[in-house]
Amino acid sequence: MSQSIEYGNLMHRALRRLIQEVLEDVRDNGLPGEHHFFITFDTRHPDVNIADWLMERYPSDMTVVMQHWYDNLEITDDGFSVTLNFGDAPEPLYIPFESIKTFVDPSVEFGLRFESQSDEDGEDLDEETDDTTVEELEIPETEVEAVPAATDADVVSLDSFRKK
């Protein structure tokens, strides 16, 4: 029996399940209305599966956008796979739910940020001892970086989506 209830880890799992359910609904019914997602994930997670050239370009984290075109969306209890378009080149990705750092739907000003506390050396703690905190976001403060676009578009700023 543990000495305390690990609320952070329980909330972490529940909110990752929320993302899973949202993606399952999108798989079954498509993206409704103006909904779209910015998903930032840790490319160093051992179960992430992306093309080598994407791993070289985004060695620590990457933000993808699911909006106008995506294909082959498949969801499991551990993660999801999707094919996205990078400069007119479809690329399959596998993103474990544990690797997700942020999940934002700017159309309704909803977002989640998953943060891990680090030990004294700056290394992430093991998941079993990780006191993960989850924050509900209105919209992240920074511009979206590392979003490969289908064309030579500018980096997307989330400022235009902020509530005034």
UniProtKB/TrEMBL annotation:
Stretches with biased composition (Acidic residues): 117-144
Top-level taxon: Bacteria
Renumbered residue ranges of the record's region Disordered: 115-150
Name of the molecule in the record: Stringent starvation protein B
Species this protein is from: Cognatishimia activa
